[in-house]
Design a protein that fits this description.
Layout (H helix, E strand, L loop, with lengths): L1 E2 L6 E2 L15 E2 L63 H15 L7 H21 L7 H35 L1
Antiparallel strand pairs: 1-2, 1-3
Length: about 180
């Protein structure tokens, strides 16, 4: 048999180790034997005075009503996380280099306007590659830059070969006369 030293309850179950009323550890006692010590005295302090006026009844005068002040809630939800606006990947120069390279190779033959657009495409492509190398997280479009430089370069190389061939033909024609 086991007994609770706090509430002095007895329990017959051997598997119990704690009192079911107050959770105190049970002590072993002999069956039929009275506890050797009296139950402890529990002292409960008196309740606090909750009367805000101190026991006096307030007068009910007109205009003397003071409404209770609103109390801030104890818990407030946390503020929402800051919204991260995705920064646009800058690839404008790379796209411009690609467009000028394609323009030079296709439409640039008309009136030789590609002789103006091809060098601009090469310069924009190089500037774009430098920006990509310095800040790869914000600048993208490396393949576009490279293709734009190559196409513009192919156009310029073709014109250089054409001028050399024409100059060679003029030189050879002048030798026959």
């Amino acid at each position: 048999m086991k007994r609770c030293p706090t509430c002095n309850r007895t329990f017959d179950d051997e598997w119990l180790s704690f009192c079911t009323e107050d959770g105190t550890t049970l002590v072993e006692t002999q069956s039929g034997q009275l506890p050797s010590e009296p139950p402890p005295t529990v002292w409960i302090p008196p309740a606090m005075d909750t009367d805000p006026v101190g026991g006096q009844k307030p007068f009910d005068l007109p205009g003397s009503y003071n409404p209770p002040q609103p109390v801030a809630p104890a818990w407030q939800p946390p503020p929402p996380p800051p919204v991260q606006v995705p920064r646009g990947q800058k690839q404008g120069l790379a796209v411009a280099s690609l467009v000028l390279g394609i323009f030079s190779v296709t439409i640039g033959w008309c009136c030789s306007i590609g002789l103006l657009s091809a060098p601009i495409g090469i310069v924009l492509g190089i500037v774009s590659l430098v920006q990509i190398k310095n800040d790869p997280t914000n600048n993208t479009g490396k393949p576009l830059s490279i293709i734009g430089i190559v196409l513009s370069g192919v156009y310029i190389v073709f014109w250089i070969l054409l001028f050399m061939l024409y100059g060679f033909a003029l030189f050879m024609g002048s030798l026959n006369h």
